[in-house]
Design a protein that fits this description.
By secondary structure, the chain is an alpha/beta fold. It has 9 helices and 7 strands, in the order βαβαααααββαββαβα. Strands 1, 2, 3, 4, 5, 6 and 7 form a 7-stranded mixed sheet that branches. The chain starts with 7 loop residues before the first strand and ends in a 7-residue tail after the last helix.
């Protein structure tokens, strides 16, 4: 069924490998033909949401489970070879281009909006980005949205330095409502009742001294 009311949206939280839960939810939506006129995803949620928007059932699951088991793409060794805790070359080049090619044609022709959240290092504010023409920019945005602070390199989108969207807006409910979607389905990856503790993150002043607003 198509949830085509003008004020209904879908919000996808990040959470790294916790996003396996999101994969299952989105596959279930596809099994039942459930679509939303507006979806916004952050970090792992942005990655998994891309496969949902292209209608590629099982693709996100393969990335989070099968690909991890086969290639072990999370590890300290990648910090030395790529400057990231994960094998970003595998995830954002080999996977979408060769292993399970991403269906850009279906994604670009999808009439429903899809927004991916990043953090602008210059302003310290969230960026809510959309792209329906350039495959390179799509992968650049989702890569930036997944670039965790401290353990991943800054990613440039439109020549702007960006990091993981979860730094500023990990569950963009307010943004979705500001876009006119008062009814929301929110897919979380933490246990019920979870509340994040405040952290001053003193290392940020060392790692990102070029970006005081961040």
């Amino acid at each position: 069924m198509n949830i085509n009311t003008s004020n209904t949206g879908l919000v996808l939280e990040g959470g790294g490998l916790r996003g396996v839960f999101t994969c299952g939810v989105l596959d279930c939506f596809m099994d039942h033909g459930i679509k939303f006129p507006f979806t916004v995803g952050v970090s792992a949620g942005a990655c998994n949401g891309l496969s949902y928007m292209s209608g590629q059932r099982g693709r996100a699951r393969a990335s989070n489970i099968d690909l991890l088991e086969e290639h072990h793409y999370v590890g300290v060794k990648y910090l030395f070879t790529q400057g990231c805790i994960m094998d970003f070359k595998l995830l954002f080049e080999d996977f979408p281009e060769k292993i399970i090619p991403y269906d850009y044609d279906t994604y670009f022709s999808n009439p429903d909006r899809y927004v991916m959240v990043t953090t602008n290092c210059l302003t310290g504010k969230a960026e809510y980005l959309e792209e329906r023409q350039s495959s390179e920019r799509v992968m650049g945005i989702v890569r930036a949205s997944s670039s965790l602070p401290f353990v991943a390199k800054i990613t440039y989108v439109d020549e702007i330095p960006m990091l993981d969207g979860g730094i500023v807006d990990s569950i963009p409910v307010k943004y979705a409502m500001e876009q006119g979607y008062s009814k929301l389905v929110v897919v979380l990856t933490r246990n019920k009742g979870y509340r994040k503790k405040k952290s001053s993150m003193p290392l940020s002043k060392v790692f990102y001294k070029k970006y005081p607003m961040l």
